[in-house]
């Protein structure tokens, strides 16, 4: 059923939990403002760790049933954010979490180290075609995914970036796969970003609270990992502090992946809201809309 009315936002993520970590507050904000928000999750998260001891038996090297658990967790997170349109790329179970076994040269996992249907081994066109069908149905004005490094380099995140980027191009080609729907060109694409300034603020709060182990070795005033984005490269800053509680509820829903007594929650009290209720983006395609006094777009749909 083709969706044609109102503002429509599509997010493409690798695992259940990435959406809430990266853009949970923005998602809740846009839903509350009447936008249609669609999340496509590319894998079931089969290879994830399990922070809930009584669920350890679900692990990939035991019963291998973690994807079913994370599907429930993701549904609960969507309820917390108010998102009603969630899909798995190609359907639940089509692509498997590739795991984080890194290739010796530091790049993403070697193909012979993962399952046959691991997302890292997916045929790019086949995977993109699943997303073309969604794009041509939903007809989003805005797409959010990862940068070329997948944010922090996870192979599934890198592959999600590639699939989303390729699908956005293919969806707009009139003569391409007419069977997948009428062509649709997405007006603006953004990459989720981790702000260097907010990272430094968060580190300062952790160190001031006596936490020297979280992000061990990182100095609030020292060099940051390359995947943290300096403010000058950030183009949009969505202030969704009013939806921080929804984001925290969504994160709590991903109980096998995110511990509620970790630094994120430690920082997410009123003091931390600025750090986590404001979410950052880099524009990848399309024309930025009006900027605020700090030079940021404040709305992903600005200018449309
Ligand atoms: C946020 C994210 O992308 N999580 C991925 C990631 O999880 C990490 C992995 O389990 C690692 O072994 C842990 O040390 C780390 O704390 C986790 O964040 O990779 C998983 C396996 O591919 C994936 O399921 C999870 O969603
Ligand atoms: Zn992930």
Automatic annotation (TrEMBL):
Catalytic reactions of this protein: 1D-myo-inositol 2-acetamido-2-deoxy-alpha-D-glucopyranoside + H2O = 1D-myo-inositol 2-amino-2-deoxy-alpha-D-glucopyranoside + acetate
- UniProt: Zn(2+) binding residues: 15, 18, 157
Q: Does Metal-binding count among this protein's keywords? A: yes
Q: Entry's SUPFAM superfamilies?
A: LmbE-like
Cofactor binding notes: Binds 1 zinc ion per subunit.
What keywords appear on the UniProt entry? Hydrolase, Metal-binding, Zinc
| Database matches in InterPro entries | GlcNAc_PI_deacetylase-related, LmbE-like_dom_sf, Mycothiol_biosynthesis_MshB
EC top class named in words: hydrolase
Names of the cofactor(s): Zn(2+)
Q: Name one GO molecular function term.
A: N-acetylglucosaminylinositol deacetylase activity
- EC number of the protein: 3.5.1.103
Q: Which HAMAP family match?
A: MshB
NCBIfam families the UniProt entry points to? mycothiol_MshB
Q: Which family does it belong to?
A: Belongs to the MshB deacetylase family.
What does it do? Catalyzes the deacetylation of 1D-myo-inositol 2-acetamido-2-deoxy-alpha-D-glucopyranoside (GlcNAc-Ins) in the mycothiol biosynthesis pathway.
| Name of the molecule in the record | 1D-myo-inositol 2-acetamido-2-deoxy-alpha-D-glucopyranoside deacetylase
What is the protein's species of origin? Nocardioides massiliensis
């Amino acid at each position: 059923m083709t969706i044609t009315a109102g503002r429509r936002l599509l997010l493409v993520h690798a695992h259940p939990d990435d959406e809430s970590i990266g853009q949970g507050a923005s998602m809740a904000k846009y839903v509350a403002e009447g936008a249609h928000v669609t999340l496509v999750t590319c894998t079931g998260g089969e290879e994830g760790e399990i922070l809930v001891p009584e669920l350890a038996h679900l692990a990939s090297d035991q019963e291998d049933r973690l994807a079913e658990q994370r599907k429930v967790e993701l549904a609960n997170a969507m309820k917390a954010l108010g998102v009603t349109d969630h899909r798995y790329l190609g359907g639940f179970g089509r692509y498997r979490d590739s795991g984080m076994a890194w290739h010796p040269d530091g790049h993403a996992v070697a193909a012979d180290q993962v399952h046959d249907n691991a997302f890292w081994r997916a045929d790019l066109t086949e995977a993109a075609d699943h997303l073309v069908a969604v794009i041509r149905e939903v007809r989003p004005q805005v797409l959010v995914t990862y940068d070329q490094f997948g944010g922090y380099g996870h192979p599934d995140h890198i592959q999600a970036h590639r699939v989303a980027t390729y699908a956005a191009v293919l969806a707009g080609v009139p003569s391409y796969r007419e069977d997948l729907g009428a062509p649709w060109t997405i007006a603006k694409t953004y990459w989720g970003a981790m702000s260097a300034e907010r990272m430094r603020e968060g580190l300062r709060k952790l160190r001031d609270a006596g936490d020297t182990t979280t992000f061990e070795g990182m100095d609030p005033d020292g060099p940051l990992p390359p995947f943290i984005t300096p403010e000058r490269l950030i183009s949009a800053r969505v202030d969704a502090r009013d939806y921080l509680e929804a984001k925290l509820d969504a994160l709590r829903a991903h109980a096998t992946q995110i511990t509620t007594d970790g630094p994120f929650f430690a920082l997410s009290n009123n003091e931390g809201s600025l750090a986590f209720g404001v979410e950052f983006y880099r524009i990848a395609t399309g024309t930025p809309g009006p900027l605020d006094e700090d030079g940021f777009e404040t709305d992903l749909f600005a200018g449309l």
